[in-house]
Specification:
By secondary structure, the protein is of the alpha/beta class.
C-alpha cells in the first residue's frame, strides 16, 4: 500500500531538514577544528579548580525543572544580563562561544560577575578546550557523545573532573546514554526531538540518581518545538532554554516564569 500523499510530503520535509541539519553540524565542526589549530594553549598549571557545582545547583530531587538560560557570548551587554539573571535567582547559566579567541574574555567576565555555576555549551572537541574553559571560569562543559568516539569522550570527562568541572554528556540515543553512564558522567544531557519531547526510551533508561539536563533539538532544528518543563517534571532536573537566553529581557522573563 502506498503512503498517503500528506504523509509522504511530511517524510520528505523531515528528510530534507535532517540533511540540512547534518550540513550545518559538519560546517560548525570544521570551523571549530580550524579555530582549534590556531588557539592559544592554556598551561594546565595555570588552571584552578572550580568551587561551584553545576550538578548540585540543578538538583531539586526532580520536584521541579530548573530553566537554565542559554546565552551567546557575543550578545551585547552579556555581563550585565548575567548579573541580572543571577539576581533573579537562576540556578545556573549557560554560555556558548562562536569565536573562542575573541569571546573567552567575555565568558570570563560573565563568570566573575555571577555567583551561580556556569556551563559552556559550544563545541568542545579537544582536551585543551576544557582547560581554557576552566581558566575562563566555566564550572561545567557540554560534551557531545556523538562527536567524541573511541576513548576521546573518556579522556575529556577525566580532564573536566581534574579541574572540578562537571562533564555534561549530551546523548541522542540509547547507545550514547550507555557510554555516558559507563563513564559516570555527573550530568547526562538528553536531546528533545523536533516535537519538544524527549524520547520515552531515553528517559526510561536514565537512572534516577543521575542528573538529567534536557537540550533542545540539535542546533536549532527546523520547526523544532521548545521543550516544556511540565512534560519533564519528575523525569529530568533542568532544561537548557535558548529562548529565554535570547529574550530582550531574560531576567524579567525568568521572574515571570517563576511566578507562574
Amino acid at each position: 500500500m502506498t503512503a498517503p500523499i500528506g504523509g509522504a510530503r511530511k517524510s520528505l520535509k523531515a528528510g530534507a531538514a535532517r540533511d540540512i541539519l547534518r550540513g550545518v553540524q559538519q560546517s560548525l565542526i570544521d570551523r571549530r577544528r580550524q579555530q582549534n589549530l590556531v588557539a592559544r594553549r592554556v598551561p594546565v598549571s595555570a588552571v584552578t579548580p572550580s568551587i561551584r557545582s553545576f550538578a548540585q545547583a540543578i538538583d531539586r530531587q526532580r520536584k521541579s525543572v530548573e530553566r537554565i538560560p542559554a546565552l551567546r557570548a557575543a550578545r551585547p551587554g552579556l555581563v550585565e544580563l548575567c548579573g541580572a539573571l543571577d539576581d533573579a535567582e537562576v540556578a545556573a547559566l549557560a554560555i556558548g562561544l562562536d569565536d573562542p579567541a575573541a569571546e573567552l574574555g567575555l565568558l570570563q567576565a560573565a563568570a566573575r560577575a555571577i555567583s551561580v555555576p556556569l556551563l559552556r555549551t559550544d563545541l568542545l572537541l579537544e582536551e585543551f578546550q576544557l582547560y581554557e574553559s576552566r581558566a575562563a571560569g566555566a564550572d561545567a562543559v557540554l560534551l557531545h557523545a556523538s562527536l567524541l568516539d573511541g576513548d576521546r569522550l573518556a579522556r575529556l570527562c577525566t580532564a573536566a573532573r581534574s579541574t572540578h568541572m562537571a562533564p555534561c554528556v549530551a546523548c541522542a540515543d540509547a547507545g550514547e546514554l550507555a557510554r555516558a553512564l559507563a563513564l559516570r558522567a555527573e550530568v547526562v544531557a538528553l536531546f528533545a526531538g523536533a516535537d519538544g519531547l524527549v524520547p520515552e526510551a531515553l528517559l526510561a533508561a536514565l537512572p534516577r540518581r543521575v542528573m538529567a539536563l534536557v537540550l533542545p533539538a540539535h542546533l536549532g532544528e527546523p520547526d523544532a518545538a521548545t521543550p516544556e518543563p511540565v512534560h519533564l517534571r519528575g523525569r529530568a532536573d533542568a532544561l537548557l532554554d535558548p529562548t529565554l537566553g535570547e529574550s530582550a529581557t531574560p531576567a524579567a522573563d525568568f521572574r515571570h516564569l517563576l511566578e507562574e
